[in-house]
């Protein structure tokens, strides 16, 4: 078993404890997105990108307050400390954090972040949004709720907004936050699909 397949099997058990919005299928889709972007970014370190994708949600703040498991996986990797730190940096720069994300400082971080954000939009993004909302007991929509346009990371994570409001607070902004050319290209159709979905939803609920 090669290094990447070995790591996949190790992390699979972690993600199988999460709800369907952040399970191992999510990781597989992000991995697929990252490969598509990697084909257009030949200067990127493919190994760093692949490992960062596999580990990027192990310590997701929605599910754990500890980075212990993530650090354990990274520390066991047979590579230089410099490369391990690069992987840590890529992971740290993925999260949206209510618009308070860290700057993606390398092409590898940009690829991982774009690949993850692509899975947050389009048909899969819609499915994931309602899967997470259902797991958290959130309303499908709330006609009286105002989408927040500016918030701290704590405010973003603490308020239990409806699933539809999440589109306006995050998902509809992601197309314009893509950083790679391939990511931008892939995001366009997915963004348009979300807009069509929201329009149809408004039609069906009488708005």
TrEMBL record:
Residues 19-130 form the HD/PDEase domain. Pfam families: HD. It comes from Lysinibacillus sphaericus OT4b.31. It comes from the Bacteria. Transmembrane segments: none annotated. This is HD/PDEase domain-containing protein.
